[in-house]
Design goal:
The chain is an alpha/beta fold and about 260 residues long. It has eleven helices and eleven strands.
Amino acid sequence: MQTFSRRVAEEVLKVLGSDDVKVLDQCNCLNYTYVLINTRLGEFLGIAYTPTEDLRAGEIGVEPRVEELPELVTNLDSLVRALGVALINAISHYLVVREGLRLSQGDLKSEILKYVRPNCTACFVGSITPVAEALRGGCTVYQLERRSDLRHDSYPDIDAPLIIPNCDLLVITGSAIVNNTIDQLLALRKGNAITVLSGPTAAAYPPVLHDLGIDVVGSSLVRDPRVIVQLLKLGAGYRLLDKRGLLFKYVSTKTTQWVRYSS
């Protein structure tokens, strides 16, 4: 089956071509999984959500290899999938630099507000509460969350078939790629729904994501790989990385003009 994650992996490898990429280090840390790579343009770090809610006694010692990327992201073990997505994101950062791709530094909340229309309905899949709250008043807003400890006023994600087909705006966190729910979520969309992929896990090469039907990507690239590696090993999460200015947050769309990214 050609899942969304496998298609992303295969397309990123096509763009990479014959360039030599070596995996230097990897770890399934408490909050985020990382993969550090070396390329002819230096080191790049990719991070992805660590699916702690799906932990099991899985495979031990699976080291991510570039040539096995499609198999990594479709592995039955969620921790292996997280390594695969982190590797995609590391390679994608390299491709952004290699291709001179222009990424616009921006705020996802401001971008999403552009799509609010009278009587619209929006669904947020994953914990993006600040952005969801910004839409209330202009939109009917639903939130879906897998983890009961993060659910609060959200609905469990098993209610997705009752909500998503009625939505004009669908915002999905990148963790859906890791936990293997993104295909079901995308299949539930109504035809003209604006689809947004968000969060640091959603840092795959943006042109690939747009070609696969994602209208807006709001993600981030890491500024200092070695510093972030040490922080992740100590249990750091997104807020700490952002607070320390270690993330370049960008918004990519099919229609807006990009500005050049500078590290």
